UniProtKB/TrEMBL annotation:
Pfam families: ABC_tran. Keywords: ATP-binding, Nucleotide-binding, Transport. Coiled coil: none annotated. PANTHER family: ABC TRANSPORTER RELATED, IMPORT ATP-BINDING PROTEIN. Residues 7-244 form the ABC transporter domain. It comes from Nonomuraea polychroma. The keyword Nucleotide-binding applies. This is Putative ABC transport system ATP-binding protein. It comes from the Bacteria. GO terms for molecular function: ATP binding; ATP hydrolysis activity; transmembrane transporter activity. InterPro entries: AAA+_ATPase (IPR003593), ABC_transporter-like_ATP-bd (IPR003439), ABC_transporter-like_CS (IPR017871), ABC_transpr_LolD-like (IPR015854), MacB-like_ATP-bd (IPR017911), P-loop_NTPase (IPR027417).
Length: 247
């Protein structure tokens, strides 16, 4: 890890509950995510992937350790300041798209700008939709769009504030194979062509193969990482060995 990494985790632990019931969901994780890189986070069920994503994105506070996003130590921020930082510097993409059904694609993409108290700039909103190939669908509501198109609207919404980092939680979990590939190519393209930083939690080795780097968690710790754009077979083999160990 270097101090220029967009997201930095320094000895991050997250304990849920206390006493006999205490669960160390994250146990002293130190890792960094360099600007303009695409990282997949994998690991068996319960290994701490969601907890890592929530702590790294400032949605949850670590019990111990430090998280830095875009040069800011999140531990120094009040809840309100943290909310403002998330709105301005972090984009989110979820498995279930999380679009507002009553709003058009364009209005959904404009939401983060409205929440940040900015008057949505129609040109920026249109540009974000064009980026994901949906300029023609600006006036459509989510129910009038396919799952893949809805996820692309969600990606445009994540992009519109020009965040330092986009966190994606199983972004293709609800999509078929062909649509998933299109969404993953889009995410990878944002990294390759615009220098976006993307961190994606996934169970799917094929999805993880779109990343530059794959981080493997087990029992709340980083136990391995593959770099240099590993293929799906290599990733699946590493996952299989972790799942055997976890049984
Ligand atoms: N709010 C909570 N209260 C208590 N324990 C929790 C809470 N959230 C997570 N945990 C526990 O922390 C550990 C890590 O959970 P986490 O959801 O981060 O794993 P995961 O790798 O994302 O799992 P999955 O792949 O099944 O979604 C698990 O043992 C889980 O039961």
């Amino acid at each position: 890890m270097t101090s220029t990494d967009t997201v930095q985790l320094w000895s991050v632990s997250r304990v849920y509950g206390s006493g006999d019931q205490a669960v160390a969901a994250l146990d002293g994780v130190t890792t960094g995510f360099a600007p303009g890189t695409f990282t997949a986070v994998m690991g068996p069920s319960g290994s701490g992937k969601s907890t890592l994503l929530h702590c790294a994105a400032g949605l949850d506070r670590p019990s111990d350790g430090k998280v830095v996003i875009d040069g800011t130590d999140l531990g120094t921020l009040t809840e309100d300041e943290l909310t403002l930082l998330r709105r301005a510097r972090v984009g989110f993409v979820f498995q279930s798209f999380n679009l507002v059904s009553a709003l058009t694609a364009e209005q959904n993409v404009a939401l983060p700008l409205r929440l940040a108290g900015r008057r949505p700039d129609a040109t920026k909103v249109r540009a974000a939709l064009a980026e994901v190939g949906l300029a023609e669908r600006a006036g459509h509501r989510p129910s009038e769009l396919s799952g893949g198109q809805q996820q692309r609207v969600a990606i445009a919404r994540a992009l519109v504030t020009k965040p330092a980092v986009i966190f994606a939680d199983e972004p293709t979990g609800a999509l078929d194979t062909t649509t998933s590939r299109a969404v993953l190519k889009l995410l990878r393209g944002l990294v390759d062509h615009q220098g976006q930083t993307v961190i994606m939690v996934t169970h799917d080795p094929v999805a993880a193969a779109y990343a530059h780097r794959v981080l493997f968690l087990a029992d709340g710790r980083v136990v391995d990482e593959l770099t240099g754009g590993p293929g799906p077979e290599t990733i699946a083999a590493r996952m299989a060995s972790l799942e055997v160990t976890a049984c």
